[in-house]
Queue: 3 jobs
Job 1
Amino acid sequence: MPSWLQNQFLKAYASKDIQQIKTLNQCWFFYYKKLLND
């Protein structure tokens, strides 16, 4: 996982921002699938 994404996750969890966490999860799965397919 890229460091910029890890930092975003840490901020979202620290502020308990559920919507941000869900969005970051979607970004991560999209990014991860793309990495596997390349």
Note: The chain has two helices and no strands.
Job 2
Amino acid sequence: MYRFLWRRLPGGTALRLAVVLLLTGVAVAALWYVVFPWLAPRVPLG
């Protein structure tokens, strides 16, 4: 699956790596600032 995604990305290796890092950063930021704050009151801790 990762090989398929890697081949679908545009450009050479450097551009592909930059796109992967950018998309990973966007996904982490979305989880950190949107999903986790929404989920925190709904998860019983302790």
Note: The first helix runs from residue 2 to 8.
Job 3
Amino acid sequence: MNGFFKTILAGWGAKKLGGGCIGTIIVFIIIYYLLGYL
């Protein structure tokens, strides 16, 4: 998967799922990590 597209998708998911600032960062890292295996 394209790195730029993966970053955008992870950022969108983190914005939707993350509660606060730290939660959003954690969700972003998890989604980015998981997309790395697709």
Note: The chain has a mean pLDDT of 80.
